[in-house]
């Protein structure tokens, strides 16, 4: 592994994950409703998808990249529709009287939903291609250099999700039913807005 590229990847991964978007909203709500583990798994799904797209860009898999980017509008429509459905479901969800216990099934569902949601935005490949080009990394630079940067991106993104979910779950016990209802309303409306935007853009 190349320590310098690994460190650069950590910074890139953190900067990609940090801006508030639909995944951030999902991570916050999952952490409040289900606890640290489920909230972290929601973010980890997005980090895994980012790593997949990073591999496609870094290893020069042009056929895969071209196929996904060529179908980006259809995938964007699917992702937007999924976000809209998730937003409506979240908005109408009734908060549990007490904080929900940790559940492996919920954690896996959170991971899978954010993984697929992030994969539904294949234009991410273009962002990673630009990052790799900026660092002079491509198929000609060798797989070790690409692996170092992709691993760094994944670890940087995962670290951010761990910090976010940990911070939110720390105040979980103080969030009552009224606050959780407000969180559901705001989260649902935000996810619906992101979904409608994705549909219009596609």
Give the SSE map:
Layout: H1 3-17, H2 22-34, H3 36-58, H4 62-70, H5 72-92, H6 104-119, H7 124-134, H8 143-170, H9 177-201
Helix pairs in contact: 1-8, 2-3, 2-6, 2-8, 2-9, 3-6, 3-7, 3-8, 5-6, 5-9
Q: Which residues sit in consecutive blocks of at least 5 with pLDDT less than 50?
A: none
State the separation between the terminal residues, measured CA to CA. 39 Å
In terms of quaternary structure, what is this? single chain
Round the Cα radius of gyration to an integer and report it: 18 Å
How many helices in DSSP terms?
Answer: 9
Helical residue percent band: over 70%
Question: What's the rounded overall pLDDT mean?
Answer: 77
The structural class is mainly alpha
Shape: globular
